[in-house]
Amino acid sequence: PGMPLSSASGTQIEEDLAKSGTVKSVIPTPMRIGFLGLGIMGQGMVMNLLRSGHEVTVWNRTAQKCRDFVKAGALKGNSPCEVVQQCDITFCCVADTTAVKDIVFGSQGVLRGITGGKCFVEMSTIDEETVQDVAEAIQARGGVYLEAPVVGSRVPALEGQLTILASGDRKLFDDCFSCFEAIGKKSLYLGSDPGAATRMKLIINMVMGSVVASLSEGMAMAEKVGLDLEDVAEVLGLGSLRCPTIIHKSQAILNGKYDPHFPLQHQQKDLRLALQLGDKVEQPLYIAAAANELYKKARRLGYGESDISAVFRAASN
Ligand code: NA7
To answer: What are the pLDDT tens digits along the chain (317 aa)?
Structure first.
């Protein structure tokens, strides 16, 4: 527990981790853990799994992103299939539905490695239908399925402060205990139904998207009517709107610094998926629908890979 990273350290992600100063005492499961996807979220999660003493085998489509993790003690798999074969529990956290389908159903994909009892945990935020397809395909081969999308962006991922929303196999949820302890501050089991955690995640991110879109419009209008954005940010921070999202995103807008904590294109994807879900159950979503248009415009302006706070550029355009 609390195992230090290897002496071959000194990577950017380890410097970030060192700054975070969070040390948890976790008793790591002896099960072999696989992790597919070393994007912004995967990087923080894998480092925290390693730091707490888990044995982790990583794979990422762009293989050079594995390098820092191998230096920090991870093993490297050559394909999703190989990772699943070598591990007891394999987590997957990648961009979107297309990425998940490639990784699960592809020729060297997860499914090819699934045999009786192998466990797969889907952490990407994707649509409900794909979640069902993946769950059924894994189970049809005798595998065990859990979905566990997380709430939180780059910094909570680095600090092991994510909120884990899980649904699917209960025993697998319990077996993930030490992993969830390492990456999160709280994990919730929302039932055995694949899709429940995804629905929760989409609602949470829908609210987030609307809040940040509204902040952007406010800041854009403030600029137009001749107010100092620094004053606006200060006033926002003094009242009941004082929360991490409003504070951090208003600072990002103020400084014009949009390095991605939560990529804007993922926020727009989540709004799109939430709108689809609303469509299915005839829930009107006026605010989210309008916010979605603003994020779409921001993507068109070239801010897809920037932080969601860059939606300000669409509002002020
Ligand atoms: P990032 O930082 O945009 O990273 C995306 C990851 O997904 C990255 O590892 C990509 O690999 C991978 N990816 C994207 N497309 C594919 C395909 N087609 N096949 C395999 N791998 C792919 O995302 P975040 O870490 O911020 O977010 C991950 C999820 O959590 C997402 O659903 C969010 O909404 C929540 P690459 O390095 O580009 O080769």
So the answer is: 444 444 344 566 666 666 665 678 999 999 999 999 999 999 999 999 999 999 999 999 999 999 999 999 999 999 999 999 999 999 999 999 999 999 999 999 999 999 999 999 999 999 999 999 999 999 999 999 999 999 999 999 999 999 999 999 999 999 999 999 999 999 999 999 999 999 999 999 999 999 999 999 999 999 999 999 999 999 999 999 999 999 999 999 999 999 999 999 999 999 999 999 999 999 999 999 999 999 999 999 999 999 999 999 999 98
Residue 185 annotated as catalytic = no
CA of 242: how far to CAs of 190, 248, 290, in Å?
Answer: 29, 10, 24
Contact 316, 220 (CB under 8 A): yes
pTM of the entire structure? Answer: 0.94
Say if residues 92 and 103 touch (Cβ distance below 8 Å).
yes
Complex ipTM value: 0.99
DSSP 18-75: HHH---------SS-EEEE--SHHHHHHHHHHHHTT--EEEE-SSGGGGHHHHHTT-E
**CA-closest residue to ligand 1 atom 17:** 99
Residue nearest to atom 30 of ligand 1 (CA): 124
The label of the residue with tokens 């501050």 reads 185
Does ligand 1 come within 6 angstroms of the Cβ of 102?
A: yes
Ligand 1: does its nearest atom lie under 6 Å from the Cβ of 306? no
With a 6 Å cutoff on the Cβ, whether 205 touches ligand 1 is no
* Active-site residue, from 118, 201, 249, 269: 201
Choose one of 46, 61, 78, 153 to mutate for the ligand 1 pocket test, by most ligand atoms within 8 angstroms of C-beta.
61
Select from 46, 94, 200 the residue to mutate for testing ligand 1; criterion: most ligand atoms less than 8 Å from CB: 94
